[in-house]
# Entry
Amino acid sequence: MIVHDQLYIGGVWTDPSDTTRLDIRSPHDRSLVGRSVQALPADVGPPVEGAGPAVDQGALGRENPRRRQDLIVRLNQLREARSDEIAALITSERGNPLWFNKAGQGGLTRQALGYLKGAREFGWEEELDSSVPDAAFRSVVRREAIGVVAAVIPWNSPFSAALAKLIPALLAGNTVVLKASPENSLSMMLLAGLFGELGLPEGVVSILPADRETSEHLVAHPGVDKVAFTGSTGAGRAIAAVAGRQLKRVSLELGGKSAAIILPDADLDEAVPALRFSSLGNNGEACIAQTRVLAPRSRYEEVVTALRDLLKGLKVGDPSEEDTFIGPLVRAEHQERVRSYIRLGVEEGARLVTGGPESPAGLERGNYVKPTLFADVDNGMRIAREEIFGPVLVVIPFEDEDDAVRIANDSEYGLSGGVWTADLERGLGIARRIRTGTFTVNGAPIGFDGPFGGYKTSGTGREYGAVGLAEYVEHKTITVPASGTMRTS
# Structure
């Protein structure tokens, strides 16, 4: 059993204000995985107040950008060396399948490489060409650290969410206080240990597992200069309100209710198996999950039958077993929330094709939900409009291509989506019409060089690559007389 008695504050393992440990229990069978102390509001002050001087003293900001990049390369190497351990630990405490966490380790490497490529090509300091002939001055634009970043992340994909914020923040020379969910206490303390090995200057990184009250205290702390948040749209609105009152920089990666459009010419033998990953990966506890499947009326029952067979064939069970596709949900309260949506779908008049609110046979002890499929769904139903965050799919019919685009766009969210077609140009044309931050054609994976984020209530700002890195810098313009020499760094 893993036990953590201290918090990682500014690079130093430190006793918390309250030494009470939280039991971290397996969502599979409620067995005890470990215990960890949690940060309380009283624990927020020291990491923020230590991070501020680290910024002022230029702990990373005055380093050559290449030096900061070297630190991230080393961090990635340290993580890769323990990737199997990390994957297994997240499965134990979080309940998502081992296959997903193992696959995610490669994604973490690609994420880091995308940020590093962006950092190498970034114009940290550059002289501008004047738009005025024979101007009496020259201008230099510098991109500098914002300051103290509060990074607040959810429980569904802890390493990915944490590093998506830590890496660009550090590449830009900021200091970071990362607030993780209690459910991820063990894996996030492992991440803290990696930073301990990295040997950053004191005050640069703090990692605090904590509940919502501590998050709110961190976000509102006057010493925080930027908030980077991933989580629900409701929580994002609250954070944006606090940041707005204090005029803090803020970036928000929020919820989604993405559509997978299956055009009449699509090959279902390719499309439906791929939806296993894009719609049900990570137990369906994913903001980018394509949980609204839009099917043409001409092939509607064919699509419904293929999806029914897919869901019925998924192995649900112990997430540590390699062939398990759907594991338990993160906690009992969330399990009940997802079940309530399944009951709601029946009440709304949707056809329950497979699944249901009951626990799978033999798995009643864990937080399990049957993979569930609804047909005959109208896009106005709540199960088609609200983010369920579990293994629940709805199939919505459409008349023609314009109708499919209309339905896909008829959502308060705009995070992701996809289209399946035999004609790539047709698919690209659909992609250009959908108002989401990311969109895939025929299951092409989302890369890490381009920006990731949402339209509408799916958030503000972007992550990944050079665009994501730019979320963590301030822009300064310096003007000097045109005469004389000048060297940019």
